[in-house]
Amino acid sequence: MRVTSNSTDERPRVLECRDVERRFGGLVAVTGVNMHIHQGEIFGLVGPNGSGKTTMTNAITGFFPPQKGQILLNGENITGMAPHKVARRGVARTFQNLALFNGMTVLDNILLGRHVHMKPSVFRTALYPWLARPEEIAHREVVEEVIDFMQLENVRDEPVDVIPLGLKKRVELARALVAEPSFLVLDEPMAGMNQEEKEYMARFILDAREERGVTVMLIEHHMDIITGICDRMMVLSYGEVIDTGIPKDVIADPRVIKAYLGGAHAVQ
Ligand SMILES: Nc1ncnc2c1ncn2[C@@H]1O[C@H](COP(=O)(O)OP(=O)(O)OP(=O)(O)O)[C@@H](O)[C@H]1O
């Protein structure tokens, strides 16, 4: 099914969520969520702890499908689709808690992000290793280019567990980017970072949009980052949307101020 935009923004909608609901037992984690993200946007998703941000991320990426509503990616209904199939459609994500493989190098962790493009031809590769060579070289080229883009050259051969948190978060973003996504979902990519590291990460996200044409959904608690780099934002509270719009307007909304002052995070 194709969906056309009926807002004043004529850009195609990469993502559209319609009346999405997800429950866990008796707990309604999100309900009645309507949202859309245009091609090329950086879209912020914010809300106090437990408001349903990660639940929406998991619903979109196929990890926990919604029980009600629809999710459309580039006009295609992907509701309930398995995560690997969503990934093959150009969606990559990072996780709130680091999901890197300790003991492996930075390079090998990033290389894992290419798995969506790798052919499962273990048998053929074992018998005829030379057939796998061109494919491996192509994967390596993408990885090298992303290592350069994310400025990880100096730590490429380090075990990932010994590098600082700011760099680990950068490795996660690099692993998502080597999948060559068109839509990137970032779940708190700046958690635990100092100001300088946050600004670096914000720059990489902006560059990913400018230089790689990626559309971004950004979950963040740091309101200064959201207002600084997002084109539009949406606020969830207790699993429901309380406002969507350009950051300047949304952070002035009394309902948003109340939700934040009632929670752990203040609007800055
Ligand atoms: N797998 C799960 N099983 C049971 N309850 C869950 C599960 N995932 C989320 N929840 C509940 O759903 C609600 C929304 O949680 P969610 O993690 O989506 O919020 P969040 O906005 O991402 O919070 P945070 O900012 O703390 O990460 C919470 O009450 C949470 O306890």
Automatic annotation (TrEMBL):
Keywords: ATP-binding, Cell membrane, Membrane, Nucleotide-binding, Transport
Domain of life: Bacteria
InterPro entries the UniProt entry points to: AAA+_ATPase, ABC_AA/LPS_Transport, ABC_transporter-like_ATP-bd, BCA_ABC_TP_C, P-loop_NTPase
GO MF entry, a single one: ATP binding
Gene3D superfamilies reported for this sequence: P-loop containing nucleotide triphosphate hydrolases (3.40.50.300)
Domain ABC transporter residues, every copy: 15-263
Database matches in Pfam families: ABC_tran, BCA_ABC_TP_C
Claim: Protease is one of the keywords in the record: no
Protein name: ABC transporter ATP-binding protein
Native organism: Hydrogenophaga atypica
